[in-house]
Specification:
Helices cover about 10% and strands about 40% of the residues. It contains seven helices and 28 strands. The radius of gyration is 22 Å and the shape is globular. Pfam families: FBA_3. It comes from Aegilops tauschii.
Length: about 400
């Protein structure tokens, strides 16, 4: 008879089976509530920090666009499902004397850089400070090495090893004694030099790689080249009209066909419901075509939407779709006012937000990365130097 009370005493919540509490209740809570629940009991903390729970909880979290404000010091997410007053949510406030740049994001981890010395080179400056942080758990650590002469193309989980890695584009400059042209991989927290995995084609060396899209354990880009036209910088898509794919398991590159959008259109790639999509805007910036790759294996694209943007004199860039197919459009008025417009597929303005910024490449490029909330296992941080 003494065994029954002892068994009851070991449950996380009296009168409720652990299986229901953990896998039907706790796993459905938002990350902030999970963190607070760990202070209730030590058993609750153990139940919500094991690898199986973290993976299950992460799988339920939405991927949200990242934005910034206040001179790049506030990191926010945009959630179209929330009430109007709560669609913009601050996930981190950085107490920095200088602006930061959001370099990459994966599984809720952010790679931030802070430049102590400005420069005109497209890669990271020689004194750029790189930090990896998890805004949900407020954990952060500086990376063990600088990345001089490298551009960060993306971050990804390498499933065979369970480690996070950076995909880098090596660059070569006249003031550099080394030629690092090509693709490299660097494991976060590693003291080793970036590992060379191949050389890029000549056309891709001068292409601009925007934020990648994650689908089927692969990173995807729709590269853009910039060229001077009549004294101004114009963009054009690569003649090959191909999507560049990086398989994060094999760590190798391949290509798939892109839709037949006009070469003069401005186009970029996005993800919706684990499918690839490509946005294409005409030169007049009035008509937006949304292409979707329904069948990944056959590489056949379908024109899903054609949106007429009736708002005059809007200069900007498409940034993604929500589950209903509505459009998120980042725009600029003049040289100083930055807005996020939320537009439905009929071209009607649903909501707008002012004074937001997400970074620039060249003159016009705006970059959005995805932030799925994840409470990363503590073992990850132990591999990093200077843990705070």
């Amino acid at each position: 008879m003494a065994e029954a009370p002892a068994a009851a005493a070991t449950t996380l919540l009296p009168g409720l089976p652990d299986e229901i509490l953990v896998w039907e209740i706790l796993v459905r809570l938002d990350p902030k509530s999970i963190l607070r629940s760990r202070a209730v009991r030590r058993d609750w903390r153990c139940a919500t920090t094991n690898h199986r729970f973290l993976q299950a909880h992460h799988a339920r979290q939405p991927a949200l666009p990242i934005l910034s404000s206040d001179g790049y010091r506030n990191i926010l997410t945009f959630d179209h499902r929330a009430a109007a007053a709560s669609q913009l949510h601050t996930v981190a406030r950085l107490a920095l004397s200088q602006p930061f740049k959001l370099e990459a994001s994966c599984d809720g981890l952010l790679i931030l850089s802070k430049h102590e010395m400005a420069g005109s080179r497209p890669g990271l400056g020689p004194r750029a400070l790189l930090t990896v942080c998890n805004p949900v758990t407020r954990q952060h650590a500086s990376l063990t090495r600088t990345l001089k002469d490298f551009n960060i193309l993306g971050m990804y989980p390498h499933r065979p090893t369970g480690k996070y890695r950076l995909l880098l584009q090596g660059t070569s400059f006249m003031d550099s004694s080394s030629d690092r042209t090509g693709w490299y991989v660097l494991e976060l927290g590693s003291y080793e030099a970036p590992r060379y995995i191949g050389c890029s084609k000549a056309k891709l060396q001068s292409a601009i790689f925007h934020a990648p899209v994650w689908v089927r354990d692969s990173l995807h880009w729709y590269p853009v080249c910039y060229t001077p036209v009549d004294g101004e910088t114009a963009f054009f898509q690569l003649e090959s009209k191909l999507v560049i794919v990086f398989d994060t398991i094999a760590e190798s590159f391949r290509q798939i066909r892109a839709p037949l959008a006009p070469r003069t259109n401005y186009s970029c790639i996005f993800e919706m419901d684990n499918m690839l999509g490509i946005y294409s805007c005409d030169k007049a910036q009035k008509i937006v075509d949304i292409w979707v790759l329904h069948n990944y294996e056959s590489e056949v694209w379908e024109l899903k939407y054609r949106v007429d943007l009736t708002i005059a004199e809007i200069w900007g860039k498409f940034e993604g779709l929500n589950g209903d197919g509505d459009v998120l459009l980042l725009v600029r008025f003049g040289q100083s006012e930055n807005w996020l417009f939320y537009v439905d597929t009929d071209g009607k303005l649903v909501a707008s937000f002012q004074d937001l910024y997400v970074g620039e490449v060249g003159n016009k490029k705006r970059q959005i990365l995805l932030l799925p909330d994840l409470q990363v296992a503590p073992d990850f941080w132990k591999t990093l130097e200077h843990y705070w």
